[in-house]
Structure formats: C-alpha cells, structure tokens
Amino acid sequence: MTAEWSCAKQGPVAQRSAEHPHETVPELCTYRLEIAVRPDLSDALATATGAQLAGLHPTGLRSRKVYWLDLDISPDEARQVLAALTDPVAEVGAIGALADDFGAPAGAAGHPWLLTIGFRPGVTDSVGTSVKRAAEDCLGRALRGQVYTGTTYAIWGLEEAHAERAARELHNPLIERATLERSPRPQAFAVPRAGGVHEAVVATVALGAADDATLMRISTQGMLALTLTEMRAIQRHFVDLGRDPTDAELECLAQTWSEHCKHKIFAAPIEYTDPDGATRTIDRGLFRTYIRGATEAIAAARAADDGDAPFLVSVFHDNAGVVRFSDADHLVYKVETHNSPSALDPYGGAMTGIVGVNRDSLGTGLGADLLTNVWGYCFGEPDFAGQLPPGLMHPRKIRDGVHRGVIDGGNQSGIPYSRGWELFDARYAGKPLVYCGTVAVMPVTSAGRPTAEKVVRAGDVVVMLGGRIGKDGIHGATFSSVELDESSPVQAVQIGDPITQKMVADFLTEARELGLYSGLTDNGAGGLSSSIGEMATFTGGADIDLALAPLKYPGLMPWEVLISEAQERMTLAVPKDRLEALLELARRREVEATPLGEFTSSGRLRATWAGKPVLDLGLEFLHEGTPRVPLRARWSPPARPESAPAAVAAVLGEQRLADAPGSIGHDLLDMLVRPNMASHEHLGRRYDHEVKGLSVVKPWVGARQDVPSTATVMRARHLRPEGVILAEGVHPHYGDLDTDAMARACVDEAVRRALCAGARIDRLAALDNFCWPDPVQSDKTPDGEHKLAQLVRCCEGLRAACEAFGVPLVSGKDSMKNDAHLGGVKISIPPTLLVSVIGQMPDVRRALDLAPIAAGDLVFVLGPTGRHLGGSELSRQRGLVLHGVPTTDLAAAAARYAAFAAARDAGLVRSAHVAGRGGLAVALAHMTLAGELGLEVAVTDELLRPVPEDMSLTPAEFLFSESTGRIVFTCKPAAAGELTARLGGHGLQALGQVAAPGEDGGGWLRVRRGAQTIVELTAAALRERFRPAALHGPPAPLPARAQEVQR
Amino acid sequence: MNPLAIEGAAEVRALVLTGYGLNCEAETCAALQTIGARVTARHVADAIADDDALAGHPLVVFIGGFSFGDHIASGRVFANRLRYRMGERLQRHVEAGGLVLGICNGFQTIVKLGLLPGLEPGLQQRVSLVMNDRLGYWDAWVRLAVDRASPCVFTRDLPPTIELPSRHGEGKLVFETGPLRQVLEDRHLIPVRYADETGAPTERWPDNPDGSPGGIAGLCDPSGRVFGLMPHPEAYLYPENHPHWIAQREAGTLPEHGLGLHLLAGGVRAIASR
To answer: Which UniProt keywords apply (chain B) (predicted)?
Structure first.
C-alpha cells in the first residue's frame, strides 16, 4: 500500500478574499478519496459507459468517484470526511485508492486499465465546491484550499490501443485531463491547481504611432476582433487625449464594441442592389428600420385599444422583452444563442447557454421569476460518416454534449422546459446553433415599485454577486464575433454552475421583495466591463476597484478581472442605506456579495487596482464611439436549376399512384425516420417539463404522450387560470431559396401554432434570433454581399409578417459569424432565422392540442394548399431541387387566423394542428399517433384545386406540399355548419373524418383518391419509424487529430 | 373523500423547507393551501438557526429539487447538514407525533438522514436511493399501486392506483445486506409501488422508471407518519396537469381537482382528526 496522503511542499497555494487580498495560506495536504458502488450492486454509470465503448468490447467496467481534498485538514479529519461522503449502504470508499480490481465483474479476467478523468486547471468544478462545503459541514469549521473531482474507470479486457481510444472517447481534452494507468498503478497526488503569483500589472498599449499593419496585429493577436476602422478610431481618441490606452481600456472597448455586444451589422447603413440593378439605401440600419420599425408601427396601431395599459411594457432596452399579462404579472422572454462555445465544449458551452439566458430574464427590470425554458439546436447530420475537417467534433458527439449540458443546467435550476426542437443539415457541422430561451414572470410591482424599471442613482454601490472570477470565458464576446479556427481560445469556454446560480436567483427574489437593490444586470459577454459599463449609463458613470473582486485563484491581471466571463454572476446597484441588509442576507444565504465601488455622475467609467489607475473611459466614447461603416448588399436569386421533369414526376406525378400503389405511404414512413422528423422523446424526457406543477399542454402529447405538441401551454402562477403559450418557427431550407419567404414562414408558423393551442390573437409577441454566416464582403467571404442581401430580405419579410399579424418583436439576438475555417475547409451555416412566439390565454382550461377526440368527428383543413415543395422535407428526402417555396399571403392568413380564433373561442373546434414541415402527410401522421383513432381522409378534386386558376395538384404534391397558413382541425359533426359559415371564405375544406380504432385497438390513417386507397397505415407502423434510436449508439467516429492522453 | 373538505384543515400548520437548490416550494405550498392547510415556507438556513422552527408545525415537508446540485450523491450534502444541525430536533418532532413527508429529493434526503425506514431510534441509514438503472434523469407520468394495509397515514385514503409525474435520476432503492427488505415487506412499510397497466407492481421500464426492486416507489416508518416517495403528488395539483386531461374534459371525466392532492390530504387529515 502506498501513501494515503501527501503534504509535501507543493508551492504556496494562494486564496485571496476581499478582506485579505494578499494573504497566502501555507501548506495544504492532499488526500485522494476513492468511492465505488458496492460490488454486488449495479453501477449505472459503468453500464452506460460500457454501452458507449461497446465497439471496443471491454470484458468489464466499473466506475469510481475520485475527490482530491487539497485542504488544511489532518489525516483523521480526512477519514471523517470520507465517511460523510460515502453512502454507508450503497458505496465503499477508501483514502488513497481501492484495490485496482475492486468490484471486478464476473468474466473480467486479468488486470484492469485505470482511466482517470478530471478537469484541467481553472475549469469550473462545481462538485468540488460542494465537496468542500460538505467537508466544512462535517468538520464544523471553515476550510482553506480547494477540492478537485474526477472519475476513475476500471476497464477490463482492452489492449493498449483500445484503452487509449477509450480515453479519447470519454474526455474532452479542451477542459479535461485523462490519465491512463495499467494496474498496479502508482499513487498520484497532483491536483490541477490554477493561477500563479504574478503581481498585478497594468500595461499600456503603444497605439499612438502605430501604422495600419501594427493596429491590425494588435487586434488579431489580442483576440480583440476590432476592425481597422475601429482601431483607427480608438487610436485617434487616445491621440486626442495625449496618451496611450491601457490594456484594460483596449480590452473594455473591444468587448463593448464587439459584434456580439454592439450588433454593428444590424446598425450599419446598407446599400442594397436588386437583381435588376436598382439600388436603395437603408440609412438607419436593419435593426432600426425593420425590427424596431415593426414594433413601433404595431405599438402605434394598437395604442388606441391598449389605452392606459400598453401591451409593450419594456422592449429592446433591457436584457429581455417585457409584455403585459395579468393585473399582477408581466411576462419576460429572451432567447439567446451559444454557438461558438458549444462547438468547442458542447456540454459546458450549452450549459452556459441555458444558465446564461436564465440570467438575462433574471436581470430584467428589477428581476423576474424564472418560469420555463425553451431550446432548439441545429446540428450536422448525426449519422455523418465522412471525414471531418481537423478540429471538428462529430455532430453526434456535439449533439450528446449539448443535450446533457442543457439538461443539467435546466433541471438543476428547477426550471421546466416547454419547447424543444432539433434540425439537422450538413452545413451546421462547422458551428452548431444552440438556442436557449427563458420565460419569466415579473410581478407588476415589488416592494412598492414598478418591477420593470431600474432606478439606479449616483452614489448607489456597485455589488458583484455570485460566482468568483477566473480566467474562464475571457474573450468570449470577441471570440463569438469571429469565425472558428485552429487558434480559437480554450479559455473562451465556461462551464456553468447551476446550483450556485439557483442560490443567487433565490437570493435575488428575496432581496427584490425587500427592496434591497435599485438595479441589476447579469455578467455575461464582456463580464464586468459590459455589466458595469451598461449600468453606468443610468447615472452617468461608475468607479470600481478591481482588486476587491473575489477570485477563484490568484494571478489574474486587472484586465482579465474586468472582462472575464466567469459564470453565475450578477451586478447590482445597491442604495447605501440598504447595503448592510443586503450583505447580511447574502451571508445567510451563502451567496457571495462584494462591493466593488459606486455609480457616479462623472460621465466616466473608471477602474483602479488597489488605488492604481487601470481604466478611465468616457461613457460617450465607450458606447457611442463605434464607427458606423456602410455595408453593401447585392441580391441574386438562387441559380440552381430545378430537377428534370421526369425525376420530379417520378416522385410527385399522378402516374405514380397507378404504377406503385402505396408508394406515398412508403414516402411518409421514410420521412418519419429522418432526423428532422423523428421523435426525440428519448432526449426530451431527460429534461424536466413538470417541475413547478404548472404544465397544461406539455411538450409531448397524445394517448402515448410521444407526439411533439403543436404549442405548449402552462399556467404562469399557481391558483390562477391565465396561461402562457409558446411556439416557434424555423425554416432555414426555405432561406436557401428566398430569405424573405423564410421569414414570413417562420412568423406564420409560430403564430399559427400558438393559435391552435388557444392563444388570444391580440396578445402575441415574438422574438427574433438571427444566426448568419459572415455577411461582410472580404477575401475570406467573397459572397458577403449576397449573404448581406439575404439578411436584408429576411428583415423585410420579418417586418411584413409581424405587421400583418400585429405581432411585435419584443427582444432578439443576432449571431453573425457562424463560419468555421479549418484545415483549408470553410463550412458556413445556412442563414437561419428563429421566430419564437409567446401567447396568452385567459383560462387554460380551454386549451387545445392536436389529438383528435372522438370517432365521428370531422376533419377540416383551413387554408389553401399550393405547389410549395421548394425547400421541403420531401425534396431533400428524394434528392430533388424544386423552386416553389411557400411565400405566405400575409393579409389572407391574418384574416383567416382571426376567423379561426373566433370560431375556436366559440367552442367549435375540438383539436387543432399545423401543417408544416412534411406537409399534411406528417400532420395527419401526428394526429393518428396522438389520437390512437382512425383518420379517414379523401383527397377530392376541390382539395387539389384550391385556387380556381391554378393548375391542379397531384395527390403527392397535396400531401407533401409545405404551403404555409394551414390549420388542420377536428370538430363535432354538429359544428360543421357554423364553421362553414364562419370560415368558408377563408379556405375551409373538408378533409375527412375521425373513426374508431382499428382491429389492433390502435389508430390508423387511410387516404383515398376516389375509389383508390393511396395511403393505408396503422399508428403502430408509423410509430415504429417515428420512435428514435437510443441516445448513446455505438461510439462516434473520432475526430482526426491528436489528443493528449497522459501516460 | 374530498381533499378540499377536511374538517379542521385550517388549523393544520405545515412547514415547507426551501433553499440550497430545492425547487418545488411553489407547487407544494399551493397544493397544501388548496387543501386548506396553513403553510409556512422557510429557508433551511433560517430554520436551522431557529431552535423553535419546527414547533407548532405538525407537518414538515422536504420538497423536491436538487439540494446542493445532487453533487456527490442526491441528498447527501443536505442530509449531512441536517444530521449535524437539526437531526435531534427532527427526531423529537417525529417522536412527539409529528409528520414528515419527503418528496423526490426530500425522500432521498430523509433516507440518507436515516429518518426512513426508521425501524429503531436514532438516525441510521439502512437503505439508499441510487442512480436509475437507465442512467440519467427521466420525466414521465407513472402509475402507483397503493398498499392499503400500510400504516402510512398519507396513503390510507387513496384508491388502489394513482397516477403521478415522476422525474428523477436517482430513484432506485437499495438495501443494506441482510433481511431488511423482507422486514419492510412484512410490516407493509412500502405504501406505493410502480405499477403496470393492470395495476400490478413492476420492475419493467418505463412503468418503473428507475429499476427499483419490487417497484418500490416510497417508504414509510412503522408509525406511518414519516413517508417519502419519488413521484410528485404536488405536481398533480390541477386536473390540467394530467397528460390526458383534454381527452378527459371532452369525455366528461375530468376530476374537479388534481388527484395528487389526495396524498397530501391524507397527512393533513391525520393531523386534523386527532
């Protein structure tokens, strides 16, 4: 047996605190604790890991938790801590190590490999924080030092090459370290301590005499993402001041002026040229013209109806949009993207995405109560089998990691999810899109004040709340403003710590109701530089001392403290007479709160380090000094010709029915198994959707609860009937043909979905999330003018649709550099707009879902079907290029929806669903699966010729067309007359009838064309294709790059 | 029995402990209020600091959530903290006739604290709740078969089966080595078990989401006053929580209130009627 602990000199380990910034702790002792599941019990982690490594055929696998206690405790105390951490019934623990072959399963012969995976230095280890807390509880005193955690896998039956492969499969070298040892292993006490003992230094950057090449080198090497024009503006500013900037000042400007924070592309004037050469100028930029323009027009139009209670409470100027909901509450909604970090570390990047957007809603106004999350992901094809460029992770590995990150972040925060979706396309392999959103409920007033307004005054104290600062997330804002390449910084990745944030959120709710602070915002992109920089605009200045900020480990430079994006932090403004009460509550709630300085009216943002000047910037230059550079856009419609008529006819032609009866049914079955259409229930149920007890229409509906709902409905508060409805539209494949049509389709589908579930038509609001490939013309982006034109057209479509439906845009986000440049390969995402709609209903007890109710009910489709197979799922499934993208007649759709909502509110509609991706065929399949009843559909001549002057559709075109604006609903037979009277003028057409279940007791779908049956499928057959494969299939192909495995 | 018509419910005071990553306080309080009880929600830290926190609250509820992130193991850090700072008070509360309900993380916590199964005095952990056989969190409704012969006061008025949402990653019950499981079976200290469509206890996924042996979904102590379970009665608070509520509405079978209330009502009724 080797030593159980190590107290050898390991260099000074420094713990700095606000009270004792320069104190260092002497020696600490390191104890390695190993805890395993009792050998006769199953080890679920080992089972799942074994499945992940199935391709390597290990003969046995067991897992052990490993804790390295790097604390000022005695050996006896370490034994007490081990006893407190080990489950006396289910686990066995040891100080040092358990025997190498401990728990060897039957059939596992020989010595195992011992693979230990832990974090790299400085990576957030929230379990380590909890172990330290548990050790303090156990020993009854505060401890110095840190705890580091990891997992050891004992793996039997692998040869060396396979063991190394297992190590690569099980860890992400960007954030984790793997140690592979052959039994018998040596004892190791090395812990991943971070930090150093550097003196804090403030450097100046010699800009004054720099030529253009030098300016660009400073920007590029410093990861500043500033353009030459911007560097010149900064140079000029400091030349006028007669000095050079400090490193902190330059960094602060880079964060604040980053595309991520400043939305320069949406602010720039644009010269737009049509295909026919006509040119016009969008002087005020895209945001003001189209996004805010739409919302202002809608607000003006409804001002008379809203009266004293405007629907829009707070839009565009805060962290999230706020709309009116009930007499007691407003609704807050924000959707963010976290794409670049998720490409590097899917788990940590995605978790940071969800807990980060939680903080946006939490930091709106004076704070709001988090209600529900939404997520949506665009990934490369999960079954991609080709060669990936070096540096890219396999899409399936990204997918698994992203799901796990958002699952852990959301579940541990106690927030259910409502909407979740996935889209797959090879072009997302370079950068995945990871959308995370949060709805919150904001009391109209709290502590006697309107909660939607911050009331910060000069003299209020700047307080940093929550997690400590490390190097994590440095340059996150600027990193997300450039493409992904081999030099992308590791430290740009943060890992969230949901439990710290949950405690912060609970604390803030208490403090808000006690009126202990006057304003708050979250520390996200740009860290303190952004949060304090933004809040300083309320009073006209702020003075802070960065040396007061609590650090995770020593050795950070002042500029690093300023811009670190370490997570779980909020910045508060606290009136001086409330400060003591706030700090006292924070102590009781075990939330770290640190005064850093105060808000002023000096017009300047000033930072010092223990009295030494670090930063002194005028707020006007900081926020308004960004040069607006005009951009050029040139639109050319896609030139790719349609597929040959014979190829099209083979899929869509009338003759096909005669040649191959039943082939349309096969197309439907083949479609349901495609990644974009298949159920992801096996992933969805890993996310909590029930916590809070407010769910009404859940993410999964139907007799077997396995069909994705059209829209979700939940109560906003207990013991009240009002409901919140969420839905979305996302159609990048239409954007390949025309981004204007894409934007209309996105708004239309999101609105239509919300209306199906029961939303009031006059209380809808929307969020826009643009994810684009770089649309600025350059050597790297020779088609920038086209991509910018796509953006302009998208904005035009978005504004047109929002105005037509009277749906204001209340918040949004753009992510404009979604390109990867790796190994000489460039992968750019397709232009992608996500429209998220939030709706309201006065009484959730009237909500609807998509499942047909009873045999004998009638099935109608409302809204005409055209030849819209361009960008459709069927076109991709069958490899066709088709041009007819759905264009959406906005005026007709708006009138149709008003009529539908009125009929619905009159109680005439029993179930409702949208025809969307996959067309009516997929909508009917969903209804069949959900209802477990029969659906008898007749494709009549009238259905194939909805608009008299159009050429008739074929049945295949009718069933798979993705025409927008269509609702499929059921009603009692007795309601048909009144529905026809109300909706006949809006494209109402009889589709068929609901019937009794089949002989197997389950649902079925039959579609007839005259006497011929063209689709006949049971729900069981549909389900067999619709149900997904397991989450962890065989191991993903490994990326072709060297990964470090310590030996 | 109508959970909304308990005579004397307004005199029943319940204490709901919050904080540290617990997250079901709103629905637990709303459910108890709906039954008519007087509810106090209090941060654990404040309850620990107040020696009289439990006094006058015959029902103490340990709610669901992720106490300390479920780090190390679910409920472990929280249970230890309770053991060091509140353990004796909780034991006295139970000895004096008080009720304790642990839901999900609360069940994990009181098991690891040793309040359950509570066969002998003192806080000794004799069973545990460990990771689901299918690793990871799983959110789905389950059917529970109720043991009508159990002394559990919370479940004694329930119908033979009840449906509730279940959502956890560590719900598989394991026993110390020896005859303990048989003792619990014999004394009917297993009031609820995951059941299949026929109402029979099952170990089959997904009817049994965690692989608990015999479908064990909850435990009580011999007095029947300390009860913990993995599924969430407080999240079937409204009829509209049920996954098939729209079909029930259209068929005219929608209950007037969420059926999970019956379970909480059992505890409130036991206090009100003595």
So the answer is: ATP-binding, Cytoplasm, Glutamine amidotransferase, Hydrolase, Ligase, Nucleotide-binding, Purine biosynthesis
